[in-house]
Amino acid sequence: MPLCGCCHPLRFPPTDSHSQDAFTCFWLNSLSLERNKQTTGSEETTTAELVLEEHHRARDLFGAREDRLRAIEQRFGVRVISRGGTVKITGEAQPVQRARAVVSYLLDEARKGYTVDQYHFLAVLEKFSDEPAAGGTASLPDRIEVPSRKRYIFPRTPGQREYVESIKKNGIVFAIGPAGTGKTYLAMAAAVSELVNDQVSRLILARPAVEAGEKLGFLPGDMAEKVSPYLRPLYDALYDMMEIPRIQKLMADGVIEVAPLAFMRGRTLNDAFIILDEAQNTTPEQMKMFLTRLGFNSKAVVTGDITQIDLPEKRASGLMEVRSILQGIEGIKFCYLTQHDVVRHELVQKIVRAYDERDRRMAEKTQPERMPGLPGHNDV
After folding, report:
1. For residue 275, how far is the Cα from the chain centroid?
2. pLDDT at 29
3. First vs last Cα of the chain: how many Å apart?
4. pTM as predicted
5. Which domains can be identified in the chain, with CATH numbers?
6. Coil, strand or helix: which one is 78?
7. Are 208 and 289 within 8 A, CB to CB?
8. Higher-confidence position of 365 and 2
9. Taking Cα atoms as reference points, which of 156, 161, 196 lies closest to residue 175?
């Protein structure tokens, strides 16, 4: 399309003698030209253009310094410019198509009112790097759909992805690992997803009321007030998955139940997703009691950190013992998360590593040294 005389590019921006209509005409013609393929030397480029309906949300979508757009540029080798509610992507045809799929996804999620966090964005970026899909989300890997503004929860490490996959395929899953590896959070996401998709009719969250050597009798209040602080981490994860009014209604209706482990005795839990958190603080008797509560069409996830056992001395941990008892049974899976799966503050990973190193050194010191010339344990 030829430019009109008043809008020749050499006259941009328009002088005072040119009307606002001429200025508009220049931009319409320029945008039209940019949609067409251009040949520069031996490289053929194309430009895709998308409109951001709520351009004031560009910061939320693309990052404070448009970091996500820079990530798209680096991944696909294209040029991305966001200005005045319009996003332009320029480069070779196939990379432009893939970059456009990523930006289209972000815009579509914004229109639906969902929040795309950084890990969600990275998963989308990885997905469309391999497959230039048409903007759908059904094929995004490993995602867990939840009824909140986040919409999806994504496992962030290979260990977490194996954990999520194990929950989908097994009736009982044990997740053992240090703090910050997402044991409880991902289990909660899977539980909420199955509840809202009518795969189960109840969600039951349990914890042993034993922490850091404290006794319930020394805490103020009635029984509910005494155990409430111990159940707070479960509430925190739950509130991140669903809106609070909906949680309150489901709890009032008995669909979601949060209770101390001791309250599980004598019950049969059918059609339920059950999470036992902090299972390292269960006794062998409590662990057996919990596992035998499982009814028809039910699933259980047991989480714990065997390096932070708060049971009194000389009391065995049910989580430690159950590993040797149930290992190898079909339908039961043990997932071991490590310091490499820690997704909290980067210092947490360093702290976990330092404590692991300390424990290793202490274990080496406590091993009996073998005296020369004396028979060892393996010699008698």
Report:
1. 17
2. 36
3. 96
4. 0.64
5. 36-141 (3.30.1370.10), 158-365 (3.40.50.300)
6. coil
7. no
8. 365
9. 161
